Amino acid sequence: MPDITINGADGAFSGYLAAPAGGSGGGILVIQEIFGVNKDMRDHCDHLAAQGYFALCPDIFWRQEPGIQLTDQSEEEWARAFELYQGFDVPKGVEDLKASLAHLRGVDGCSGKAGTVGFCLGGLLVYLMAAESDAECNVSYYGVGIDEQLDKASAITTPTILHIAEEDGFVSKEAQAKINDGLKGHAHVAVHNYPGVDHAFARNNGVNYDAAAATLADERTLACFKENLS
Questions:
Q1: Which H/E stretch holds residue 4?
Q2: Which residues are catalytic?
Q3: pLDDT by 10s per residue, the chain, length 230
Q4: Which burial class, exposed, middle or buried, applies to 60 when counting CB atoms under 10 A from its CB (0-12, 13-18, 19+)?
Q5: How far is Cα 73 from Cα 172, in angstroms, rounded to an integer?
Q6: For 202, how many CA atoms within 13 A lie in the half-sphere containing its CB?
Q7: What interhelical angle do 90-105 and 121-132 show, nearest 10?
Q8: SS3 content of the chain, % helix, strand, coil (to 5)
Q9: What is the CATH number of the domain that holds 224?
Q10: Pair 171, 154: CB distance under 8 Å
Q11: Range of the domain at 141
């Protein structure tokens, strides 16, 4: 499906929408890494659509440069990705994601139930959406910076999963411990730790891809969506 246009509070931006073959189902907002709405994000959307969901990945870097599609395969792309990451306005990004969630719910055929899933930067934004939006459920993959946002945990009232890579080069062992300890016993948050894998273990064709961890995380993710979006 071609990219669609989403109208946000500060302007219009694009998003990739994958639709289920049956034409109806729940919605999942897919939140990008620092590489933009690239092939990996589109593949994740297509995978979710194959499971019966409408999957929408909005371009949250549109304020800096619309249409970014980078990979993790070159130093130049990494450098540009970090520039975009450092220039990203998190509160504005959350506003865009809320607008995207509303758009997704209004897509013809969508049941109106919608969750979120995000990776890296998107993993942090999923956590913030869990605290600040009305998404039915949320799944975060190796979110960076969640340890600095634990004061928001009390606002999370819907099922939320955090997938943590124990050898994450961007989330220190100390930060991981803070997350695990800070969310221990939370009625709505489940934290899953994956030993021996690095950041982005579920990035399709990425340098740190780990099939076993990615498969296990995907099974847990899909179970969450099935339970809460059906």
A1: strand 3-8
A2: 168, 199
A3: 579 999 999 999 999 999 999 999 999 999 999 999 999 999 999 999 999 999 999 999 999 999 999 999 999 999 999 999 999 999 999 999 999 999 999 999 999 999 999 999 999 999 999 999 999 999 999 999 999 999 999 999 999 999 999 999 999 999 999 999 999 999 999 999 999 999 999 999 899 999 999 999 999 999 999 999 98
A4: buried
A5: 23
A6: 29
A7: 70
A8: 40, 25, 35
A9: 3.40.50.1820
A10: no
A11: 3-229
- Tokens for 7, please give them: 């109208």
Tokens 């998190």 belong to residue:
90
Structure-token pair, residue 204: 């399709």
DSSP-based three-state secondary structure for 190: strand
Q: What DSSP designation does 36 have?
A: B
User: How many whole angstroms separate alpha carbon 1 and alpha carbon 148?
Assistant: 37
Q: Which residue has the tokens 């948050």?
A: 189
* Total-model pTM: 0.97
Question: How many domains in the chain?
Answer: 1
Q: Identify whether the C-beta of residue 168 lies closer than 8 Å to the C-beta of residue 139.
A: no
Q: Are strands 3-8 and 11-18 parallel, antiparallel or unpaired?
A: antiparallel
- Going by C-beta distance under 8 Å and a sequence separation of 6 or more, which residues neighbour residue 129? 29, 31, 94, 97, 98, 101, 116, 118, 135, 138
Could you give the CA distance from residue 30 to residue 173 in angstroms, rounded to a whole number?
27
Residue indicated by tokens 């209004």:
106
Q: Coil, strand or helix: which one is 229? A: helix
The two structure tokens encoding residue 34: 């620092």
Burial label, 216 (beta-carbon count in 10 A; 0-12, 13-18, 19+) = middle
Q: How many CB atoms lie within 10 A of CB 202?
A: 25
